[in-house]
Write a structure and sequence with these properties.
By secondary structure, the protein is mainly alpha-helical. About 80% of the residues lie in helices and about 0% in strands.
Length: about 425
């Protein structure tokens, strides 16, 4: 297989290779994040053994959030790299960082071995993971979209998002397999390390694919104008719009696919059942992500976002109430799948919206900063905040209100997108002319 040359025409083969290479980094990133969430209860006992179970779990989720706190810094460092040096070197750098750090987590001694240094090192490694992730997602969706032809950019960007869900699904399969194969004692002693160590071969595959990439045609076309920037007030406005759109993306993603798994365990189902249920939701969600991207190509980003947020507003509470009330594993799985459907569909529309908020020559920085600020605010806090809300109120349906709140914010933001996006191709409908950038 030959490497992609710079500005190579977007043939079907080129699109497949570019999309696969872009998506695999998100697969590794979200595999790492998923594994952490799926083994959170085991990590709590290994790294916070002296705390009560509830406090230990909250502490583990707080460490989970540490990676999100530094993601904006990662975006600040790596976004300009994508705009000045290119999308390709940024994708290679972020993938190496994520794979190496995840492997180090798998090798980390526990509190029983090295005392307080263990949770401190866990926090440090999670923060390093967040730095790498700060440049990964935005650059990957940009890469795929900038190779795509007009009329398919939403679909191509959504395929990178499919890689994110695939990473969670792989993580679910690995953790379920370990729980079925190992005793609880073995899982506690060493089994939790295995999924983290598997990130290294996954990263090696991704590195091979990314090392054979060329630059995108759109980047090559404007490479000489990368120092040009829109006025500060316009960049700030667009970044705020991105944050608003990303609220449901971040909250829905981590609530539906990470928090729900731990919620099911708290409802006294086994860890295997909980992870298998989330795996079913992920499998269905992958298809819905692609459907969201394709719909945005057909009817426009704004209208598709409004449809998705409306669905989330209507169905979230009834589904969460049913999920927390049932003792039937099959009904539990159905509720989890349906609860994740709206956020999955939405997350297929959001990526191309982020991209079209910024012109090509400032896109890497704009998307990286805006998205990572949003993820730091909403994604990093959602699991901790929801768990705290459940414990404070005694109402295990509280997660529905968190999801509904994010949908309200994103829906209102979508109403303000009229005439703001920078489409790569003429609109087929009567669209408002975008403001100058």
């Amino acid at each position: 297989m030959t490497a992609l040359s710079e500005a190579e025409p977007s043939s079907a083969s080129t699109l497949r290779r570019a999309t696969l290479a872009a998506a695999i980094g998100n697969t590794v990133e979200n595999y790492d994040y998923a594994v952490y969430g799926f083994v959170a209860a085991v990590l709590a006992r290994n790294f916070f053994p002296d705390a009560t179970p509830g406090v230990a779990l909250l502490s583990t989720f707080a460490v989970f959030g540490a990676a999100f706190v530094v993601r904006p810094l990662g975006g600040l460092l790596l976004g300009p790299v994508a705009d000045r040096l290119g999308r390709r070197p940024t994708l290679v750098l972020t993938l190496i960082g994520m794979a190496v750090v995840s492997t180090l987590i798998g090798l980390l001694p526990t509190t029983e071995t090295i005392g307080i240094a263990a949770p401190i090192l866990l926090v440090v490694l999670r923060m390093l993971q967040g730095l790498a992730a700060g440049g990964e997602y935005g650059t990957a969706i940009i890469y795929a979209a900038e190779f795509a032809p007009a009329g398919r950019k939403g679909e191509m960007a959504s395929r990178v998002q499919m890689g994110s869900l695939a990473g969670l699904l792989i993580g679910a399969f690995v953790v379920v397999g370990l729980n079925l194969s190992l005793s609880a004692t073995a899982m506690q002693a060493w089994g939790w390390r295995v999924p983290f160590l598997l990130a290294l071969p996954l990263g090696a595959i991704g590195l091979y694919l990314r090392s054979r990439l060329g630059e995108t045609p759109e980047f090559v076309a404007v490479r000489g104008r990368m120092q040009e920037q829109p006025p500060v007030d316009r960049r700030v406005r667009r970044a705020l719009l991105l944050i608003g759109v990303a609220a449901t993306h971040a909250v829905g993603f981590y609530l539906a696919f990470t928090y729900v798994q731990n919620l099911i365990i708290q409802l006294h189902f086994s860890a295997v059942t909980a992870t298998a249920v989330v795996g079913c939701a992920l499998a269905v969600g992958i298809g819905l992500v692609l459907a969201g991207g394709r719909l945005s190509d057909r009817i426009g980003r704004r209208r598709a976002l409004l449809i998705a947020t409306a669905v989330i507003l209507v169905v979230s509470y009834p589904l969460m109430a049913a999920l927390t009330a049932t003792s039937n594993p099959w009904l539990l799985a159905l509720c989890a799948v349906l609860l994740a459907a709206g956020p999955s569909f939405y997350s297929g529309i959001a990526p191309i919206t982020y991209i079209e908020l910024f012109p090509v020559h400032s896109r890497g920085t704009g998307v990286a900063l805006g998205f990572n600020v949003a993820v730091a605010i909403f994604g990093g806090s959602v699991i901790y905040a929801t768990q705290w809300l459940v414990q404070a109120t005694g109402d295990n349906r509280a997660g529905a209100f968190v999801l509904i709140g994010s949908a309200v914010l994103s829906g209102l933001t979508a109403l303000g997108l009229n005439g703001v996006l920078v489409p790569s191709a003429p609109q087929r409908s009567t669209a408002v002319t975008p403001e100058p950038v």
